[in-house]
Design a protein that fits this description.
Elements: E1 6-13, E2 16-23, E3 28-32, E4 38-40, E5 50-55, E6 65-70, E7 76-80, E8 90-93, E9 101-102, E10 111-116, E11 122-126, E12 132-136, E13 144-145, E14 157-162, E15 168-172, E16 176-180, E17 188-189, E18 200-204, E19 210-216, E20 221-227, E21 235-236, E22 247-256, E23 262-270, E24 273-282, E25 289-294, E26 296-300, E27 306-310, E28 313-317, E29 323-326, E30 337-345, E31 351-357, E32 368-376, H1 389-403
Length: 405
């Protein structure tokens, strides 16, 4: 497609080979090779597809950082230690910046950055009594407190995600799962499928469709839920069928794209004991569930590429599910990184997550755990300028045509 930069790498498994096309900015598909799903392991000499950047903290003496969301410009939000464990403020990592920007706060510096949209507006929470659902408008550090639910004006509030169209979702005391239409209006309560309070909404797309979870009294565990745009009563998403003596009692939805595809996790139980977690994807109408393998899926872009955790580490599932990519195989082997899990993926191919970094290999320095940002190689042209703008418009037109909305 015009406007998309593409690169191709080879893979092999058990002596069979194939060709994988990686479309710059999101979208990966199998061009030739094995007919079924495969796990990617690049052949010798395969091109490196990503450069790894460490997302640093606010002080030189500590290294603990968490990356939770990334937008199409590569801007990341999360949280980072300052001067020890008890000061962990929400931060923003701009592309090309050497250090994070601390986001504004009210009484307590501690909090979490949870979501960011393509305009650069970020959302999260600030700890305190009560906990505040926060918005940090694009480009600055000033903070806006989202209003509380009208029935509980002094309760705790958390903002988990924000769409390009301004929808914010999360939770609010008295409302359970909540959706804010604007930064100045009280949220509406998103109800559980049975009409009671739901636990929280964790993601929202540009149409206003939201996903999250609600407590299921029949199992005593969480049930993944979809709230369609304009509605306030949730649709229970299906569970995996029983397998090997294990029953899927718990599901949680973590991400939804504009076409309505949903990703999350399903926990398999033996009696009352959790045994294994499975990464899963639900169809846009919420009627079917697909098992992606062990682990969990936390983010999905408009092309349908999903990221999360599967054995042996941070994982990408391609849009058609034909290929599962261990992200450690598409970075330089001498980078010093072990990518543990991924948390989000943008339409432009940026991927974030958590890993361990060993700065000197066999040397005396101790490996550190930190957030990472994977930057596509070659880097998307004009990410901080105009070169990418036409491509982003093209992608948005494409996803609108796919969603039919």
């Amino acid at each position: 497609m015009k406007g998309e930069n593409r690169s191709v790498i080879a893979y092999s498994r058990g002596g069979d080979g194939g060709v994988l096309e990686v479309k710059q900015g999101g979208g990966v598909r199998l061009l030739a090779g094995l007919a079924g799903a495969v796990f990617l392991a690049p052949t010798a000499g395969a091109a490196v597809q990503y450069r790894v950047e460490i997302l640093r903290n606010l002080s030189s003496g500590t290294t603990s950082t968490t990356a939770r969301a990334v937008n199409d410009s590569g801007v990341v939000v999360g949280d980072a230690e300052r001067d020890g464990f008890f000061r962990v403020p929400p931060v923003r990592w701009d592309l090309g910046a050497s250090a994070p920007t601390e986001l504004g706060f009210f009484k307590s510096e501690n909090g979490f950055g949870w979501g960011i949209n393509n305009s650069g507006d970020a959302v999260g929470q600030l700890q305190g009594a009560p906990t505040t659902a926060a918005v940090w408008p694009a480009g600055g550090t000033s903070v806006i407190a989202l209003p509380s639910f009208s029935a509980n004006p002094n309760g705790d509030n958390v903002a988990r995600a924000i769409s390009d169209t301004g929808w914010v979702v999360g939770s609010s005391a008295g409302a359970g799962a909540a959706r804010w239409a604007t930064f100045s209006t009280a949220p509406v309560s998103l109800r559980a499928p049975g009409g009671g309070l739901a636990t929280a909404a964790t993601a929202v797309n540009n149409h206003g469709d939201a996903v999250g979870s609600a407590h299921d009294s029949s199992t005593g565990q969480e049930q993944a839920v979809l709230w369609q745009a304009g509605g306030t009563t949730g649709l229970a998403l299906p569970r995996l069928p029983a397998s090997g003596g294990l029953v899927n009692l718990e599901t949680v939805a973590y991400g939804i794209n504009d076409a309505g595809w949903i990703v999350g996790l399903a926990t398999m139980y033996s009696g009352t004991q959790p045994k294994t977690q499975r990464a899963v994807r639900w169809s846009p109408d919420g009627s079917t569930i697909v098992d992606l393998g062990s682990g969990f899926a936390t983010g999905i872009n408009s092309a349908g590429d999903a990221v999360g955790l599967s054995s042996p580490g941070a994982t990408l599932w391609t849009e058609d599910l034909n290929v599962t990519v261990d992200l450690n195989t598409v970075i330089a082997p001498d980078s010093g990184w072990n990518l543990l899990f991924a948390t989000d993926i943008s339409d432009t191919g940026f991927i974030i997550g958590q890993g361990t970094f060993d700065p000197d290999g066999a040397g005396p320095l101790t490996p550190v755990t930190a957030a990472f940002r994977l930057v596509p190689v070659p880097e998307p042209a004009g990410v901080v300028g105009l070169g990418l703008s036409g491509w982003i418009v093209l992608r948005r037109r494409r996803r609108q045509s796919v969603s039919g909305r």
